Amino acid sequence: MPQVTLSADGRQLTLQTDSTSLRFHALWLRDNAIDGATRDPGNGQRLITMADLPAETTLTQASLTDGTLMLTFGPDGHSARYDLGWLVANAYDKPQPRDAGRLPAQTSAWTSALNATVPTGAYPEVAQSDSARAAWLEHIRRYGFAKMTNLPVQSGNLFKIVDLFGYVRETNYGRHFEVRTEVNPTNLAYTGLGLQAHTDNPYRDPVPSLQVLSCLENSAEGGENMVVDGFACALRLKEINPEGFDLLCKYTARFEYAGSAGVKLQSRRPMIELAPDGTLQAVRFNSRSIAPLTDVPFDEMEAYYAAYRQLSEIIDDTDMEVTFKLEPGEAFIVDNTRVLHARKGYSGAGNRWLQGCYADKDGLLSTLAALESQQEAAA
Prior knowledge:
The protein is α+β, with helices and mostly antiparallel strands. The chain folds into 2 domains: 3-89, 2-Layer Sandwich (NE0471 N-terminal domain-like), CATH 3.30.2020.30; 112-373, Double-stranded beta-helix (4-Layer Sandwich). The chain contains 9 helices and 21 strands. The strands form 6 sheets. Strands 7, 8, 9, 10, 12, 19 and 21 form a 7-stranded mixed beta sheet that branches. A hairpin with a 4-residue loop joins β2 and β3. Its EC number is 1.14.11.1.
């Protein structure tokens, strides 16, 4: 049977189960109470601020009944109930690694081996079935990209994909943009040139965190799409050059775009961005849009450039890429904070017409979390 004990000063609680012992601070428990006086019962948002809680919050009583912990706090005498399962799931009294370069939870790094099983969903099924939609969205969370097939071949069909989880993010390129050869293009994406794998719009802060590209015509020779896992590339760099990895994390690069009238976008972010605990947060890589590097000290600039070159070579390695040629009615989506996308060059014969748009990952993750909660409740 679980047991609870309070410290002599009432500032800590220890929950002892068969397998573990977990400690909680009184102030943390009070802050996370879910009673009606602390949180709105409808939306779960806090009704209090930290200034409303006594600085010297303590625990005066604790009792366990049928998996529920009842606590009374001092000095205000407030009482609240806690589900033991919730406490265990949210426990913070545990080892918390802080090594640089850890993958985020629920993600998997990948290389060209994923060509054998490219994550894919069929639009009619994904649009009509919550379980199919959750499975497709989970692919994006895990791998940072996924294909979509069986879309209606019509202009604007990419909005149907975004409607599955969120909203289009409009930019200076418009609500969507056309990707096909143009005369005097404002962006190299609108030519037949091959493009190195890159993340889009690194000159924005924040960057659009999702990009959708949908195919309407593709009879030109060449023009295959490629995707590369930026996290896998960063980890490979760390393995062969840990000092260079640290430099690309430590110093900000500069990115800029001023390719059309009235626009001059600029940002300063690391090429490899880590969370404070060392978890990989984002990769920004775009050789077309990088500005002069001025934030790296003179004595480390050569080593920084060496690491930059190594990362570029890793990204160009065919062992890192997944390649596919989109057919009309097919599309793919990438997590633009992680997955780099590229295009092989294509000839002037035939036609190649894709449409692209941006969206935000928080909407996708919110939709996925809600669908998973529904599935858990129904199980």
